[in-house]
Predict the structure.
Amino acid sequence: MRCKLLYCWNTTAGTFYIGQSEDGRFHPIYNDESYGSYLKDWQASEDLAHNLTEPIHHPTTGKRIDTSKLGIPDHTSDWDRIRPMEGNR
């Protein structure tokens, strides 16, 4: 599935993203994998912040990541917004 990346948040486990698919749904993304599908962007960030997404595993260690311990904000208004590159609009 292709998603347009809208928001990012850097953590000690790596960077997490919120993307939007062509059907308009929002996806929490880590290591190029989607961990759910939501109607609203804040639902994706809230579930990441509270470790309520599908289980996420670290790509190197294979250990499950508790996203509630990474300081991920509940709402996308606190995330870093990804700006479209010139010419990619």
Summary: The chain has a mean pLDDT of 92. The first helix runs from residue 41 to 49.
